[in-house]
Amino acid sequence: EKMFSNTTCPIGPGALFRRTVYEQVGPWNAAYRQMPDYEFWLRVGLIGRILHITEDLALFRVHEGSQSYSVPNSERADEPVQIARAHVERAGDRFNEAVQNSALASAQLMSAQLHLRAGRFAAALNAVKQAYSYDKGQVFSVLTFRRLLNAIGNRILHKAIWSVRNIKRKLIPRNTPKS
Fold it and tell me: What is the pTM of this model?
């Protein structure tokens, strides 16, 4: 429920699940390009509990071609809302109205983050307005503040980190094997 109502996907690389789970929920939905993993895990959550191990067991790399860094087109930026609406329909009465509204607001805010990252300010503002109509509290949450900061600083921060790493690599040669 928390993953749905906050539009978060803490499940990363190295997830394990039984084959019967896959047989029940099916593969990732190829229609989604920005957040197919999130949609998949929401479906998994409808058939059983997801256990999250808080210890880091795997890592992922952010690079210029990764979804975490790239500038999404408008269609991809709207995916969180499409996924949330489809999940509300799929879940039926499993979630009460407050959870549904919270999830729809959060999805709109995720969409705003993606539009903002791409410089589509009007679309981002429209998504924030839609979020406000679902759940005013979500709009003024710490998570929303962090997402908007991420949208503004994500690409700049990553480029700065990559520049520092490149300078460091040039200045500090790697260990060479001893003869």
Answer: 0.78
